[in-house]
Specification:
This protein has about 260 residues and is of the alpha/beta class. It is about 20% helix and about 35% strand. The protein contains six helices and 15 strands. The strands form two sheets. It has a ten-stranded mixed beta sheet, sandwiched between helices. The protein has a five-stranded mixed beta sheet with strand order 1-9-14-11-12, with no helix packed on it. Strand 2, helix 1 and strand 3 form a beta-alpha-beta unit. The radius of gyration is 18 Å and the shape is globular. About 35% of the residues are buried. The mean pLDDT is about 95. InterPro entries: Thi_PPkinase, Thiamin_pyrophosphokinase_euk, Thiamin_PyroPKinase_B1-bd, TPK_B1-bd_sf, TPK_catalytic, TPK_catalytic_sf. Catalyzes the phosphorylation of thiamine to thiamine pyrophosphate (TPP). TPP is an active cofactor for enzymes involved in glycolysis and energy production. Plant leaves require high levels of TPP for photosynthesis and carbohydrate metabolism. It catalyses: thiamine + ATP = thiamine diphosphate + AMP + H(+).
Length: about 260
Amino acid sequence: MDVMIHSSTFLLPGNDHSSSVTYALVVLNQRLPRFTPILWNHAQVRVCADGGANRLFDEMPLLFPRDDAIDVRHRYKPDIIKGDMDSIRTEVLDFYTNLGTKVVDESHDQDTTDLRKCVAYVRDLAPNLDKSNLCILVAGALGGRFDHEAGNINVLYRFSTIRIILLSDDCLIYLLPRTHHHEIHIQSSVEGPHCGLIPIGMTSVSTTTTGLQWDLTNTEMRFGDLVSTSNLVQGEKITVQSSSDLLWTISIKKT
């Protein structure tokens, strides 16, 4: 079975677009993580999901208190605003439209979430983006209403062949598909030590890990019984093998 390598280098400053990973950023309508400018610099395309544009407009200047708010909004202009357009404020839409942001109105589609719409859009940008190494960073994906969070997690499963990382100020979440063995390289300066492995939708009959405080050895996990929460990373590399898809989550350090 092939090994999938994971690393949260997108949390580190820099914008090395010569990297083998092609990043895209989707901004949702929850509080922006304090490290959003770092994610922005890594991304080659930036998409606001409907009301995410309000968050970008209102909150990005707060991350640069010494800078003029208008200057910040010009620097951090999204490439695309996409969604059912029921949340974005008129003045925000007008501001970014005047700067040249593309607007894709999908108000006719009420059966899919704005995140799902945005992920499908980014996926279909290939070959302009290298789909084989595509990684979609989702800012503001966690916090607020639980049904929204559950919908965002569902998108990880709906697009299980694409690397999608849900981010908040406190933690990140991504899917570990059962089709691969996984190596997770820990960026200890910015993430950890608290972590978890969570089966969603089905029992994990057998999960084996290395590198955790409480490693699993052919362990069954399911809701109503054992779920690996409040675990701790012990080293710079975690390995995971499982009979089912798992969610990996790890805390993000306050720096």
